[in-house]
Structure formats: structure tokens, C-alpha cells
């Protein structure tokens, strides 16, 4: 490959490198943090779903679901991945 061809591809390589640093890496980091947050859910945590429901985790199931109590005696099954935020964490039992 001669210097002219390399000079033509260098801007493309630089653009890809900049896009990776500004877009792809932060998104991967955000996804990793969200996965850790979802995996750390436990009974009693107050959560917000992506649909905007606020409730307290009543039961954590193994099949990717949790049971969230949104009012007294009203429980809904929610897919773990749709939890947007954890408001209050409960302390683990001693």
C-alpha cells in the first residue's frame, strides 16, 4: 500500500475512532451499569419501571421477572430489564 492510499483511509479510521470513544463506549458502560443494578434488586427495594410505575419489589423470581407491589395488595409482574431506576435500596438482612 502506498502513502496516497493510506492518506485516504486515515480520516476514515480517525472518524471511526472518535465515534467509538464518544458513542459506543459510553453506551456499553451504561448498559453494564444497568445490568448490575437489575441483578442487585432484592425484596423491599423501591423501583421505577420504564412505564413510569413506582412500586416496591415484593418478590424476585429467577426467570427474569420480579413482582412489584404498586398499591396495598396490588402486585404486578415486571420483566427485570424494564426497571429504569432504583429509588431506595434495602439493607441486606444480617
Automatic annotation (TrEMBL):
Coiled-coil positions: none
Keyword terms of this UniProt record: Cell membrane, Membrane, Protein transport, Translocation, Transmembrane, Transmembrane helix, Transport
Location in the cell: Cell membrane
Record's bilayer topology term: Single-pass membrane protein
Predominant localisation class: membrane
GO BP annotation list: protein transport
Stretches that traverse the bilayer: 6-24
Record-level GO cellular component terms: plasma membrane
Entries under Pfam families matching the protein: YajC
Cytoplasm found in the keyword field: no
Function noted in UniProt: The SecYEG-SecDF-YajC-YidC holo-translocon (HTL) protein secretase/insertase is a supercomplex required for protein secretion, insertion of proteins into membranes, and assembly of membrane protein complexes. While the SecYEG complex is essential for assembly of a number of proteins and complexes, the SecDF-YajC-YidC subcomplex facilitates these functions.
UniProt-listed NCBIfam families: yajC (TIGR00739)
Family statement: Belongs to the YajC family.
Self-association state and partner proteins as the record states: Part of the SecDF-YidC-YajC translocase complex. The SecDF-YidC-YajC translocase forms a supercomplex with SecYEG, called the holo-translocon (HTL).
Protein name per UniProt: Sec translocon accessory complex subunit YajC
Gene: yajC
